[in-house]
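Progress report, Aim 2. The chain analyzed during this reporting quarter is listed below.
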Amino acid sequence: MEARGGEGLRGRGIRRGGGAGAGRGGERQRGGGRGENRGERAERQRFGVAGNGQPGGAEREGVIKGVGGVGVRRGGHSGDRRGGRRDDKRDGAQSEERKLGYKTLQQLSEEDPSVVAFTLSSHCGFHSQLGEERLSQDFIQLLCQVLNKAFTSRTDRGTVQHLACIVKDSKFFSTTLVGYVGSMVSEPNPSRRAEYPKHLENILAVLSGVLNIFPASSVKAVSILVTLLSSSINSLRASGVDIKPEIEEKVEHLKGLIEHLQERSRDGTLRSDRDSYALLPTGGDYTDEEQQDFRTIPLYPTPEEFHQEHRPFLRPNITSQRYTNAHTYLDTHFRLLREDFVRPLREGIQQLLQNQMDMGRMDNPVKTKRFDDIRIYFDTQLVAPKCTHMGLAYIVQFDIQPLKFVRWQNSKRLLYGSLVCLSYDNFENFLFATVSDRDPKGLEKGQVQITFIEESRLKLTRIQTNQVFLMVETTAYFEAYRYVLEGLKEQIEENLPFQRYIVECSRDVQPPAYLKKSDVYDLACVADPDHKMGIKPFHCSDPEDWPTMEELGLDESQMRAFQLALTTELAIIQGPPGTGKTYVGLKIAQALLSNQRLWSGRLVVDEDDDDDDDDDGGFAPMLVVCYTNHALDQFLEGIHTFMKRGIVRVGGRSNSEILKQFNLRELTHSRFFRHTLPSHLRTAHHQIYKELNQKMSEIETQSVRLECSLKGVIRESFLRKFISDTHWESLNSPPTEDGFEVWNEKSGVMMDWLGLGSNIFQQRETEIVNTNEAEEAMEQDEDLIEIAEEADLIQAERMIEDDWLIGARVGRDERKKEDMEEAVKAAEELMLAMNLDKVDVQAEQNDKVWQMQRNQRRKIKNKIRKELGKSSTMTEEEEENIFDVWSLTLEDRWRLYRLWIMRYRIELRTKALASEQEYQMAVDRLADLKRRENIQVLKRAKVIGMTTTGAAKFREALQVLRPRVVIVEEAAEVLEAHIITTLSNACQHLILIGDHQQLRPSATVYDLAKNFNLEMSMFERLVGMGLPFVRLNYQHRMRPDIARLLTPHIYSELENHPSVMEYENIKGLKTNLFFVEHTHPEEEIKDGKSHQNIQEAKFVVALCRYLLFQDYKPEQITILTTYTGQLHCLRKQMPSSDFSGVKVHVVDKYQGEENDIVLLSLVRSNLQGKVGFLSIPNRVCVALSRAKKGLYCIGNSVILRKVPLWSNIFHTLREKDQVGKALTLCCQNHPDRQIQASSGEDFKQAPEGGCTQPCQFRLECGHVCIRVCHPYDPEHKEYKCMKKCEKILCDQGHKCTLVCHKACPKKCQTKVEKIIPQCQHKQKVPCHQEPHTFVCQEPCQKLLSCGHPCDSVCGELCTSKCKVKVTLTLKCGHSQQGACYYKRQTDEPECRTQCEHLLKCGHACRGSCGRCYQGRFHSSCAHRCERLLVCSHKCMEPCTRDCPPCQRPCENCCVHSKCMKPCGQPCALCVEPCACQCPHRRCSKLCHEPCDCPPCTKPCTETLACGHLCIGLCGDKCPSKCRICNPDEVTEIFFGTEDEPDARFIQLEDCGHIIESSAMDLYMTMDANSQTNEGEQVAIKLKECPKCKTPMRRNLRYGSHINRSLAEIEMVKKKINEKQPNTEEKRETLLNQWMENLQTCEKHLNVEYNRLHDKLELKNLTANDLWVVENNIDFMVRVAKLLDIEKKNMLFRHGYTFRQRVTMFLSWLNGPFQKFTDQQVFDLQRELCRLNLLAELNARCHMAEKMEKTDEMQSEEQEIRDALEIVGQFTEQNQLKVKQALKGLDEKLPVRGLGISEEERKMIVSAMKMPPGHWYKCPNGHVYLITECGGAMERRNCPDCNATIGGENHALEGDNAVATEMDGARHPAWSEANNVLNFEGLYL
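Predicted structure tokens for the chain:
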């Protein structure tokens, strides 16, 4: 029937059906050589060798099978697998080790330095390449040349540092280079020798670079190389080689530096590579500070500055004449700026040190003292390192107690970027750090995140990790100073742009240099729309050629400013308030951008730039710089109106949606951005991120533990390593008091030892009661208006990391944060015996031990927090002298605990240290990389926008970008040094726009501002020096009355534009401008120097409300104040429901803004006459110039008059009677009614904004308005009349029932009596409704078909379901009462008849017939076992044959400890000494052993709390009752001896009963046999209380009896547990079983089957749990096989009902009460048997359908289905009957589709001798055979029907199938399911 090796039933079919590598007839191998014949190939395969020397096919097949067995690989061939390896090699680890070839290095040597640095530092193979033994001379020379070039990259400091580290630690540096230099002398080739000078220069550059970066660790290696170089140079010169003098000078310089470093090393002052003073020569003593080069002055304060009195040399900013030279100019600004941030810190620390000297020691008085220049934080400790995008940061904890009053949300304390100084030795040594994250919630707990500067980070490694610091904060924003100071140091005098004007103050301002080439401007783009067509290009240098101001849409002064800006290289434009300086600035920008061809030119990048494609670089951009983010957004939005592309906004927090797309961060995080980067940046990015994440993981592991160590009491197990053996043993041996003590093992002995355990804390409570640390309830703000917190506003200006962010996107950061929080929680749970961060801190306690109440828990919490906050620890000498840790005082215990914690933290910090340094280095490299990526974007921009702080920080990028045109908005608010560092030497055009008569730059030190002119901007200085400038003279904002306050008092002239003359008057007020005078005193805010004035706040809020009543929108009103304290005073009185939308700001944050109405609160009012900020004209100018239409001020005019400016302003106000004690309110509706408002209370006379007269307005409805006079809603369109509606709705006269303002219903709803025509019933029907449409509500009188009355209403259809109760006969044969409609339905109600079946357990089933599914699946037995276990507990399991070990908590305990295991597990024996002792006897045994001395019988001599003698015995615990106080309870007769006068009593600890001692002794000594009848077995159990039968577990007196019983019980437990299966082994077995059957089950039962895997992954699984899972797996596998049959071999109609039955079976299988009891397993097996037989029947029906023989078997099929549908359980008799019927069906009608009889089939299968799984069938049912492995390897055509049969790669054609009817196999022999499953067939 089948040809050898072929496939086909009749000698035809697919040949070579074997698998890959079959011994014979298998598939042709692909590995053979081209010329070999099949015999040779077969021979090689026979010996297991392939043509390429690889393992042969058979071996490979075995490998594949082995892997495929676990579902990883199902097949494949050697060719595929080799291909796979090639792919792996291409993308995998091997490629990472690919080295740099000579050609690659040559190409790299021609690249820019930045490219070279990034490529070398991030190349994985470079490090190993430097370690190679042999490198050719040419390669060494080229390598030195490339390294030299990399070290010249100036801006990629982190990357160069990393590269230098690789070189320094390499074999190349220490060995290879030494050999190369030494071999120079013996080089015989003259041409090579001639090239040596060039190579020497490269080597010297490499040595110099490494030495400068790593002076301490490289000095030795460099010294050797320099010595060799000197020798080689001498030899080369002697041999005639020309050595340049520069080379020898470099060698001598290096020698001098090496000697200096070696000297420092001998002195012990060269401590680290990052010592910033290491490379400074020590001889340079600068006694004359004036002559000292400012570039040698360190940025940070030195220790000498804190301890010396002299002040540094300073020059004032020269404002009245020119500077002598550029150096003096830079020196002046560097020193002034540095002093501005150093002086507050220096003087504050000096003041602090002086105070400490006066007080002797740092004490509480210092904690309460206020310092002017610094803020102090006591007891500061580093908690844990934290990985951030800016590098390594630390969470620090400080003492929050002295700062309880601080409102952190608005406090200026610890703002982002603030500089803090930490010291532990009175500032002899100190560390600097900046605040890198500020969370107000964390600050409330005394925690903040700081980042140390580089030098301090290295110092930190030498400081003890538990060191307590004093932390000092300076008020200056350090980040801004730092970048500007660094920029000033880097500025070269010759390259300082605009020296002619900035330094020399020349008034002859030249045109921009670019206009020399061409000065033709085209201004059509900026012209007025009406004149655009008439504007032609013109020569801007010719004033006559210019268009007119009308054509350009400008006024006269704006035109002059516009011309000045375009024709001079330094243009200064002053814009007083409202004059349109931004408008003019945008016109200038538009003109320049439209004529970019004049000034831009091709961008020539810095030689250090990495742009290697000229086409990628754009034209030089325009730079726009603003002081604030808000101004920058405004200006860039203005540019966007005429230029839709080419803008990039850098840094800061932008609130503009328009600019979001132009944000640098958005652009660099766009989807395809990284693909556009050069390859060296992409490679570096991947490599650095990989290193970064690895180090981050290592650090965070330690960080989590470090955080936990300060969050509560650590369990002693975590400190074991740091506690000596003696102390560990002592700690775990607590003493006893009164012979007995309970301690809590669960929370740990540490809690008890520290006096925090439940049984100890009560005794020590008095120590804690007086701590006076009651927790204050958090104040909850009501719903108030939102105002921008000043702290947030300041931080928004400071935080410029936004666009330069290093690290993941926000979503990933959030996920990481959540993961970190989960890790911390898990660690806390594991490590802490008590966690202070939990809301309800609670120690874990035994239920029967004293429970802590809430207040006691709070006291414990406060106690722990207080002790953990202390810094004192026990010395190691003290520790060595302690033997018993329990004998220490509580204070000493805490000191010892802190010593252990200190050691623990030191170890954690030490582990993290190496990773921290590597992490920081990776972050620095990533910052370099990010900078380069950003430059790629910026080079393509036409306009770049930055804040001044951002420009200072990223000055390196600006030096690369070299913008030629710079526009500075708000230039008068910017310190001069900021503008200097913004400019590059390529700048040819600088435009300064601002107003020096408004806000000036802000300096920290008042002395420097006033006496050294630091607060004078470059803008103001140049104006003062007479440089040409234009003032804009026409103001477009303020009405003339308001503008009069500025002119001439502040501005000499300021004209009003006609538009401001047309403003309407302010409604409800007599005047548009008024100053309200008062004398109410101010209040000082406790934290800071702010003030508030409550009376002013109330007045302003009342006036604001009044104006809102005048129908002004909230957005039209702004409240301004001069102090932040007043800002929050105002907010507290402004609920959002009334004031939402009103702006509330401090004056300084409102410059550049305007509004219709401004209410100004001036705050200051005091007896001293201090006016503070109000004396500064600039601030007054801003405050008075924000209003357009109305300005209302309130303040103390008495003290303000002392200021000349205010005196003049008041004089102007009095001219028009615009100042006074009260503001006049005018009612709009009743003009004769006026109110004089001098306080907030006065506004109550206008409750609705009018007056107190009634409104009396007649509404449209005819009613009268019931409100008092109100100016808003004058036409009452929004008024809602609440009176009753009087309208008539119908002709019947029915009135509307709603309130007046609601729309009347269109139809009358009043109900009237009408007759329903259909039934003639009378009903209450709505007036508008026709009776025939109404549904009659009378009961229906009709009878249903069943004869019962209808229960519906008359107007509705009769019910289809009769609910009358009748007797129903159910399918199960039972009868019950049910709804009548069930008689006509196939569905029936659940049978409620009691199930009377006797379950396998012997108990009657308590379910009903319905709940037991007519006996098919019974409810689980609810009978409780309740047998008494050996432990004396009752078995709580449901009905069970063998009781499992008891799972309740073990109650066995002694005075030393408590067993924490489950009760059924054997207890660990207590090996502590027996505590049974008294003055008369002492037991010498161990605790678990029977005592060797009898109980004491002497009376107890103790006195009870009541004053009477104890009634107990010596050595026992005193009973709680007294014979005199409790006579009835004590003498109650039980044994008969209780009332004897000398009776002594024992109180049982387990139940509390008091028993007479002699009777109890007798009871305990009675032999167990005497309590039972002879011949009966004695139960092993504990003795019980004779009164209540409670088992006795704890009693010292009867310890011997208890111990003997416990020993017997432990033996029984041991035997029981020996019988229990090993749960872990069983679990592993089941997991393997689950995996084996996964493929079978996941197709049909994916969810249910995976749920079993989840259960197996749970911890602490019992044998019972595993038994349930095991049965579940078994049944599910069998069900999955049935579903597989259903899918392949059932008709749709049969499959649907079959799936329903399977679903019901699964609901039983997975039910909540499934325990797989004997009964449940039996029921499931019987039902599964029913399903199996039903599947067989359905499969036969499916085959009959295919063969069109269904009609011939209908009667037999129905007979079998009836048998399978039988109600009740499917018995074995039923099963036998069905099987016989199926057999008869087979005999009558073979339906196997083979066209042969059963006997013929068996003969064929037997003759072929093939195992199951080799028979297949084509789509039309024709059977064929595949030999060998049974896997299809070729395609052929069926000889009967020509359909495709077979397949490829062991995969069968999709429409072919296994011929189950041939041999019963369900799976191909070649399949993962072939073992086992094919031998569970139905037919063989």
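Residues 1583 and 1589 are 8 Å apart (CA to CA). The chain has a mean pLDDT of 80. These observations will guide the mutagenesis work planned for the next reporting period.
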